Amino acid sequence: MSILRIAYILKCNNEIFAILFRDEKDEFISILAENMEDLESCNFSEEMICNIENDFYIIDENGVIKGLTALGQFCINCGLNRLIIPKIVCDIEVKIIGRDSFRNLNIETVILPEGLEKIDKRAFKDSKIEYLKIPDSIVVIEEKSFKDCVNLELVEFGENLKIIGSSCFYGCRSLTKVLLPEQINNVVEMAVTAFGDTGKFEVQMI
User: Fold this and answer.
1) What's this model's pTM, rounded to 2 decimal places?
2) CB 115 within 8 Å of CB 43
């Protein structure tokens, strides 16, 4: 049986969402909080706690997320497969996911904050995302933002989306369903160039 030692406790909005452990070989293992049987039995110290609002993301003064800090990248490299992007990072409101910021990242889930307005070019290109929910606040998704996300199966759009860039979902060959609010059906024509060669998938109005 492996002996695990806590290396980092990752918190968002003061709630634990993942724990990074070291095993007896000094290798790192990442476990999501919901997969921990008994968090209460873990002996936490303040030195272990990382609040992702301050420690995980690089952000500029205009609210543009530029990517991960060294700690953020380290956690992903150690098996963390979920990104939670908070509404506020380093006391700055997140407005834009910057171009190439999470490109080729080995993550299965990304949770985007309400208040986010734009996803820039190639932001999540070649990532391993399986499900994507676009917040209602997002107005623009730039070209190739999710291009070649080959594991993406379901996309749910928010109701205020105005622009979907060309080739945005090109190459997402696992896609089976797209959920579109009725009030944004004016973007359907743009979606034709956005989805490109993804093959057949169901479009459902919600």
Assistant:
1) 0.82
2) no
